[in-house]
């Protein structure tokens, strides 16, 4: 019986090199050849998934942390934030001087000031925080990045909001207004002097998307294996029959996992696929 394999990208398929190793790429292809279904399951927006990763070949793609689910190139699920709720979030973050990025299917709309923030910080703030590195990478990508001034809330639908707050207390003051509608995922460390993360609609997590994909294909969740590394993978790892997380994952994530994988740049996923007898 074939398995359903769900792979996060940042910190899972790719490490600091930002490249999927040749062995891992071949391992995924071999897993498919062996009758298993493979899926990307990422926090990245659809337009932010690198072509080199797409070209490996997957049966489906879950993007924007569950906001979009596509199978064989066809979207089977799309979820968007209600425009009135979104307008309140934008006003809340703007008043609190929180930098943010609105993720849509076709573009990212970002507030000014993100680059200034990074220029004030030392380069080592990115160390061990691949989600923050992704946020910066997306901002520099002219093909997907647009200024917030070009965003039209009446015409463009948003599925997820990423944020960076230099004032921690200002962000914590926002939480009570966000928690009714959103799961709040934090990527920064407690010792950092800023907070970065994302807000994801409730009932629209990676875990929910995984269940939607499996049900669409007529599968069973008992045959699922998920691979992740950060807290936006929590629901995915929790819902999977077998969860595998990075050896560097937060303790809270490790606590619900069944196994760990090594550094992605050292063929961590490839070795894990071998160990689990999938290839």
TrEMBL record:
Coiled coil: none annotated. Gene3D superfamilies: 3.30.1240.10, HAD superfamily/HAD-like. GO terms for molecular function: magnesium ion binding; phosphatase activity. Keywords: Hydrolase. The keyword Secreted does not apply. It holds the Pfam family Hydrolase_3. It comes from the Bacteria. GO terms for cellular component: cytosol. This is Cof-type HAD-IIB family hydrolase.
